[in-house]
Specification:
The protein has 738 residues and is an alpha/beta fold. The protein is built from 22 helices and 30 strands. It folds into five domains: 103 residues, GIY-YIG endonuclease; 69 residues, no CATH class; 184 residues, 3-Layer(aba) Sandwich (Rossmann fold), CATH 3.40.50.300; 180 residues, P-loop containing nucleotide triphosphate hydrolases (Rossmann fold); 88 residues, 2-Layer Sandwich (Alpha-Beta Plaits). The strands form seven sheets. Strands 11-12-10-13-14-9-15 form a seven-stranded parallel sheet, with helices on both faces. Strands 16-26-25-17-24-23 form a six-stranded parallel sheet, sandwiched between helices. It has a five-stranded antiparallel sheet with strand order 2-1-4-3-5, with no helix packed on it. The mean pLDDT is 89.
C-alpha cells in the first residue's frame, strides 16, 4: 500500500506538504520524526506530522532519508503544537520551533568521550604485569589503576591519574589488554553540588485535602486543574512534592514550572533533595550542551521530573501525570515573541491532552484563574495559615507625601524604615529592600532648560547607569556616554532625579557602612551562576542587606530575613493598563511574604504616595479576597478579562505614515467580516509609540472566544498586503497593554 507523510518545514512556510514514503522507510517514518525531503532545488529537513494512505497532492515527491531513530516530538506534543498555532495565531512550523530545543534543531552532538576497560582475561597472568613493569612502567601503572575499577574509566581521567600518554593506552589496546569505547556522558549542571536528601513532612489538614484530590485524579488518570491558593510560607511546595511523589509511584512523570531563573537554584535544590537523580533542569542559563543532555534524559526516561522556567512546559516527559505551575500569576510565563504563548494556559491544555493533573499555585492568583475556581472550572484549595502557624508579618504603610513634608525635602528613605533597618541589623537579622526599577536614575534632566535625554530609537527617556556615567535604553539596548553637559544649552546643570537599584545600593552602603550589601537585578546577574552565588552568600549571612527588583520578590525562603522594605510601591500603579492594580497588589504581597519565614516575627514597611489606594490597602492585610471583591466589579463593568478575551494586533514599521495606513486598512477589513459579538477598539498609537526604531499602532479586539476571533483575523490578514518593512503581530490574551 502506498503511504504518504504530511510534513512541515523548519522554515517560515505556513503550510504542510505531502511526500511519498518509500517502502524501505515505512517502518521509520512516523509522526514526530524528522526527515530529509527534496524541495525545489534544495534538500530540507522537515517534521512528519501524520502518515496516511492517501494524498490530496498528485505527483508527490519521495522522502530521501530519516534523521531520527526515535521521534523528537511525541503525539501529545504534536497535538499541543497544533493548538498553539491555532490559539496564538502562528504557523505550525513556528509552534514546533518553540517546542523543539535549539540544540536539537541545529543537530548538536551528544558528548561521547573515550572510556577504557580492562580485558581481565588477558591480565590474569601476573607475568604479563611484571613484564609491563620492566619494559613500560606507565602502561603498568595504567593497568594497576584499571584493576581497581570494576567499571570503564574515562580515558582523560586514566591519563591524569597514571601519568601515561594516550599512546601508551593505545599500545595496551594493541596488545589486547584494554578496550577503548565511546560512551554517552550526560553533562550535569549540578555536578559537585552537595544536596542532602529530605523526607516528606507531615501535611496539615488543608495540605492533605489537596494531596488526596491530586492522588485520586492520578489514580483515575483524570484531567483536573487545582488552584492552590496559599498565603506566603503556607507550604505549597510540600503539596507539590508529595503530589509528584504520588505521580512517580504510579509510573508517571512531572513538570514543575517556576517563573524566574533566579528561583531555579533554590527550587531545584528542594526537588533534587527529595527525588535525587529523577530531576532534570531546563532553563536558558544552561549551555546548549547541558540543555541537550537534560532534554535527552527526559526523552529517554532517565529523568522523570523536570524543573524549569517557561519553556520547560514543552519538555518530553514520558507518561506525563502532573504539571505544577508555581506562582501561576507571574507575567514571566508569557512569551513576548511568536508564538506569544502563556505557559500557564499551555500547561492546562497539555494536561487536558495527556489526562494529567495541573496544580496552579499562588498566594496572589490571577483574577482569571481565581474566577475559574469560583465558577467550578478549577478545584479550589486554600492554605490560609503559614507552616507551624507562624504569623504573617506586620505591614506598616508610610505615606511619603507626609514624610517629605516633615523633613522639608525629597527623600527616598522614611525615618520609620531607617530606624527599623538599624534595629534588625543590630540583632544580626537580615533585610531585603525591594525597588522595581533598575539602573541608577530613570532619567537625566538639565536643571536649567529641562532637556531630557531620550533614546533615538524609542519614545522613552534613557535610564542612567553607573552613577550617571552611562545612558541605557531598557527597550532597545542603545547606550551612550554621559558628557556631563546638557546637549541643548551646554551647561553642567545635569541632574539625576528618581531612584534605581544602583543608586539605592550606593545609598544603603553609605548609610550602613559596616554591612555588606548585595544587589539582584538583570544588570548584576548577567554571569552564569550569578543568581546561585548571590543567594548562597545571602543564605550564609555574608550579605546582610539584599536589594533588588522583582526577582527578589517571590519564591525565596530565607528564615533570617525579618524585615522587608518596599522603597516605592507605586511604580506600576499609573501604567495605562487595566491590570496595574492587580500587578501592584501581587508584587507587594509577594515581597511582604519574604519576611518572617523563620522563628522571628517579620516586619514589612511599604513606602507609597498613594496609601489609600485599594490595591495597597488590600496588600497591607494580605487579603486576596478583599482585593478580588474590589477588582471584579470594575472588570465586569468595562468588559475586561475574565469576562471577555482580548487580542491585540500591533502594526509596526519604520514609516509612521505606512504603519497608520495599514492599521486603518486592516481594521476596515476586520469590520467587514466581524460577527456582532466581536468589538474593535482603534486603531490608535501604542502607549509607547516608537520602540527599537519601529513605529507602532494597536488595534484591540474583544470577544468571548479567541479561536473565533482568530478565524476572522486570519481571513482579514489574507486581504492585507502590508508590504516590505511592515509587520503585523497578533497577541492573544496579552498581559500588557503597552
Amino acid at each position: 500500500m502506498t503511504r504518504y507523510a504530511s510534513v512541515v518545514f523548519d522554515i517560515a512556510i505556513d503550510r504542510q506538504f505531502d511526500y511519498l514514503v518509500p517502502p524501505d522507510l515505512e517502518a521509520s517514518v512516523k509522526p514526530g520524526v524528522r526527515v530529509y525531503v527534496p524541495f525545489r532545488s534544495r534538500r530540507l529537513s522537515a517534521y512528519v506530522t501524520s502518515v496516511s494512505d492517501r494524498s490530496s497532492y498528485p505527483g508527490a515527491k519521495t522522502i530521501l532519508s530519516v534523521r531520527d531513530a526515535k521521534p523528537v516530538l511525541s503525539e501529545p506534543l504534536l497535538a499541543l503544537a497544533g493548538w498553539l498555532a491555532s490559539y496564538y495565531s502562528c504557523s505550525l512550523s513556528a509552534s514546533i520551533r518553540c517546542i523543539v530545543p535549539t540544540s536539537v534543531r541545529k543537530g548538536h552532538r551528544a558528548k561521547l568521550p573515550l572510556f577504557v576497560q580492562l580485558n581481565r582475561e588477558q591480565c590474569g597472568d601476573k607475568k604479563v604485569i611484571e613484564e609491563l613493569g620492566r619494559r613500560a612502567p606507565r602502561q603498568a601503572r595504567a593497568v594497576e589503576i584499571l584493576l581497581q575499577c570494576e567499571s570503564p574509566v574515562l580515558l582523560q581521567e586514566l591519563l591524569r591519574s597514571s601519568g601515561a600518554a594516550q599512546g601508551s593506552v593505545r599500545a595496551l589496546e594493541k596488545k589486547g589488554l584494554v578496550n577503548l569505547t565511546r560512551q554517552r556522558v550526560y553533562r550535569d549542571p549540578w555536578e559537585g553540588e552537595s544536596i542532602l536528601p529530605t523526607e516528606h513532612l507531615p501535611p496539615t489538614p488543608e495540605q492533605r485535602r489537596a494531596i488526596e484530590h491530586a492522588t485520586q485524579a492520578l489514580a483515575q488518570r483524570r484531567f483536573s486543574v487545582i488552584l492552590l491558593h496559599g498565603v506566603t510560607g503556607s507550604g505549597k511546595t510540600e503539596v507539590y512534592l508529595q503530589a509528584i511523589d504520588e505521580a512517580l509511584k504510579s509510573g508517571r512523570g512531572a513538570i514543575v514550572l517556576v517563573p524566574e531563573i533566579s528561583l531555579t537554584p533554590q527550587t531545584v535544590e528542594g526537588f533534587k533533595a527529595r527525588f535525587a537523580q529523577d530531576v532534570a533542569v531546563l532553563h536558558s542559563r544552561l549551555s546548549l550542551g547541558e540543555r541537550l543532555d537534560e532534554w535527552e534524559k527526559l526523552r529517554e526516561g532517565k529523568a522523570r521530573v523536570v524543573v524549569g522556567a517557561r519553556s520547560a512546559i514543552f519538555a518530553p516527559v514520558q507518561n506525563l501525570g502532573l504539571i505544577v505551575v508555581d506562582e501561576e500569576h507571574e507575567r514571566t510565563y508569557k512569551q513576548e515573541e511568536t508564538p506569544r504563548y502563556h505557559a500557564r494556559d499551555v500547561a492546562v491544555m497539555r494536561g487536558k491532552i495527556e489526562n494529567a493533573i495541573v496544580i496552579l499555585g499562588s498566594a496572589t492568583p490571577s483574577v482569571e484563574s481565581y474566577r475559574n475556581a469560583l465558577t467550578g472550572k478549577y478545584a479550589l484549595f486554600h492554605l490560609p495559615r503559614r507552616v507551624e502557624d507562624r504569623a504573617l508579618p506586620t505591614v506598616t504603610i508610610v505615606d511619603m507625601k507626609e514624610e517629605i513634608k516633615r523633613v522639608g525635602r525629597m527623600t527616598f528613605f522614611s525615618r520609620r524604615l531607617l530606624r527599623a533597618m538599624e534595629e534588625h541589623l543590630e540583632k544580626g537579622e537580615q533585610v531585603m529592600l525591594f525597588l522595581n526599577r533598575r539602573g541608577f536614575s530613570p532619567v537625566m534632566i538639565c536643571g536649567r532648560c529641562g532637556y531630557v535625554h531620550k533614546c533615538p530609537n524609542c519614545s522613552i527617556a534613557l535610564t542612567t547607569h553607573d552613577e550617571g556615567e552611562k545612558l541605557l535604553c531598557h527597550l532597545c539596548g542603545f547606550t551612550a556616554e554621559s558628557a556631563g553637559r546638557c546637549p541643548r544649552c551646554h551647561t553642567r546643570g545635569i541632574r539625576f532625579p528618581g531612584l534605581g537599584t544602583q543608586k539605592l545600593e550606593l545609598m544603603v552602603s553609605k548609610l550602613f557602612p559596616d554591612c555588606r550589601v548585595g544587589r539582584m537585578d538583570s544588570d548584576s546577574m548577567t554571569a552564569k551562576g550569578a543568581h546561585a552565588e548571590a543567594l548562597k552568600a545571602f543564605r550564609s549571612g555574608e550579605i546582610q542587606v539584599l536589594l533588588g527588583t522583582q526577582m527578589i520578590a517571590k519564591g525565596l525562603h530565607f528564615p533570617n530575613v525579618t524585615l522587608v522594605g518596599v522603597i516605592c510601591a507605586d511604580t506600576a500603579l499609573n501604567f495605562p493598563d487595566f491590570r496595574a492594580a492587580e500587578y501592584t497588589f501581587q508584587l507587594l504581597t509577594q515581597v511582604a511574604g519574604r519576611a518572617g519565614r523563620g522563628e522571628v516575627h517579620g516586619e514589612v514597611i511599604v513606602q507609597t504616595y498613594a496609601p489609600n489606594h485599594p490595591a495597597i490597602m488590600a496588600a497591607r492585610s494580605q487579603d486576596y479576597a478583599l482585593f478580588y471583591r474590589q477588582e471584579i466589579p470594575f472588570r465586569e463593568e468595562l468588559g475586561y478579562p475574565p469576562f471577555t478575551r482580548f487580542i491585540i494586533v500591533t502594526v509596526r514599521g519604520r514609516s509612521e505614515g505606512a504603519v497608520k495606513w495599514i492599521s486603518d486598512y486592516f481594521a476596515r477589513a476586520v469590520r467587514e467580516l466581524r460577527p456582532p459579538e466581536m468589538e474593535i477598539l482603534g486603531p490608535a498609537p501604542s502607549p509607547i509609540v516608537r520602540a527599537k526604531g519601529y513605529y507602532r499602532w494597536q488595534i484591540i479586539f474583544k470577544g468571548k472566544s479567541v479561536i473565533r476571533m482568530n478565524g476572522v483575523l486570519r481571513e482579514a490578514l489574507g486581504k492585507v498586503k502590508p508590504g516590505r518593512g511592515i509587520q503585523i503581530v497578533v497577541d492573544a490574551d496579552p498581559i500588557s497593554m503597552l
